[in-house]
Specification:
2 copies of one chain form a homodimer.
Chain A (H helix, E strand, L loop, with lengths): L9 H10 L7 E2 L1 H8 L3 H13 L3 E3 L5 E3 L1 H8 L3 H20 L2 E8 L2 E8 L14 E3 L4 H8 L3 H10 L10 H14 L2 E4 L6 E9 L5 E10 L5 H18 L20
Antiparallel strand pairs in A: 1-3, 2-3, 4-5, 4-9, 5-6, 7-8, 8-9
Chain lengths: 264, 264
């Protein structure tokens, strides 16, 4: 994103203001906002005032700025994320009732995994995934299983974009091998990658066009994966979500124990 | 909102474009968007193109426009709605496990109830509340219990704004009586108001400043309210949410069976 406001359209500036807020910095004074959005203070001041009057921003009790509830409402009420979530939610609750650990739903966005929903039990293991938060694709079981079920050319384009990423980014051949295995197994299991004490396990959710549109996953204590129970439970729930999205059962994905799966 | 675009700022136009999408019309061609946003077709066309390039809008497979996942992500990742939701979620799951019907969390917004979260069981009764959807305050147990626990001047300002609303909007004296009783009881029970077959039951959630910041409610089959079990369960969960928000237990609200409660 350009650091100079000159030449930016007003829409771009508004996006930069909204993008300045995240889970780590949900509220800030206007000077911080100007810096994070790369805008002159006077511009940030004027724009913030206008966005407050439109309720896209709001002021906290201490006078800082944060995103307005109205923005969340407008963005959420017809969101594709919430459509997917609504279909998935009862099945996620089933998984959570059975596995009693974090259950999460995610999609691919720009080489990262974007978490749409997460259910947690009190007493679950730690989990770095947040609702509306992201993780790099290659460290997330959800991201890996989604890429494993993507067309070969999408995988190769991903590898091209990251070919000069230094370690710990994995070598291309290692990723290709992992994807092939995940595709055969119909699931991804990543022990101790994000956190040494936990394992991520994820399966794909297939949409009506037969492509993997989302991942359903759990985060469980490492060494207690119990994959022979967890994976079939996840696959069962994922098929339920696929059906809810209008996908024919026969197209809804692999069976436990591997097998042919879709060809490349 | 003015119907003519002349004199509108760009920020206002963007809000009008985003506001044109809702749960009933999540996707539309640009001509419909122009009409719903009150913009000339050429303006809508240009603005939609720019918002697509910024990923605030996206095109569907059939070429219609809808809100982009990126907008949901930006609006959600630091949202006050999701902060509240995250604290409330484990307690909402407890309620749902016990009551097995719709469980919902809401806040007041401009004389309406805005639903932040809703958990449903398959087989629950029908429910008109949607996540990021609204209901008029006076027909919702959540809205009524929130207004019942608002300061007297907020109640009177609400009544002033609605004094010429025709029936079925209730008479001011009837609302004042209901609010007084709900405040005494610490809960609102509205049988058959939104739907003849269901009853809404809601209790307030108190924030650190001692004011009611949200409502926790359930929608249950009418005639099977079992309030002597439902209300204490809701109050217990609401106190847990209050504590999670940093509220001292002693300030966390009324006890079952009524009692003094806070004075006006």
């Amino acid at each position: 994103m350009a650091n100079s406001p000159s030449g930016d359209s007003m829409a771009e500036r508004i996006v930069r203001v909204i993008s300045a807020f995240d889970a780590e910095r949900p509220a800030m004074p206007v000077a911080t906002l100007a810096r994070r959005a790369g805008l002159p203070l006077s511009t940030a001041h004027r724009l913030a005032g206008e966005l407050v009057s439109l309720a896209l921003l709001q002021r906290t009790d201490s006078g800082e700025l944060r995103l307005g509830l109205r923005l969340w409402e407008l963005a959420s009420r017809s969101s594709a994320a919430l459509d997917l979530r609504q279909v998935a939610m009862p099945f996620m609750e089933d998984i959570q009732a059975v596995i009693r650990q974090h259950t999460q739903l995610s999609v691919l966005q720009e080489d990262e995994v974007l978490f749409i929903e997460r259910l947690s039990s009190r007493g679950s293991v730690s989990n770095f995934a947040k609702v509306a938060g992201r993780l790099p694709l290659h460290i997330s079981s959800s991201g890996m299983v989604l890429m494993a079920h993507s067309p070969r050319h999408v995988q190769e384009e991903f590898l091209d974009r990251h070919q000069s990423d230094p370690p710990p980014f994995p070598a291309a051949d290692s990723l290709r091998r992992q994807w092939a295995e995940m595709r055969r197994e119909g699931c991804a299991t990543l022990p101790g990658v994000v956190d040494p004490d936990t394992t991520g396990i994820a399966v794909p959710v297939f949409g009506p066009q037969g492509s993997a549109v989302a991942a359903l996953g759990v985060v469980v204590p490492r060494g207690k994966e119990n994959t022979s129970a967890t994976v079939p439970a996840l696959m069962t729930a994922a098929r339920g979500i696929s059906r809810g999205l209008g996908t024919d059962s026969a197209e809804a994905g692999p069976r436990y124990g591997g097998g042919a799966g879709a060809g490349d």
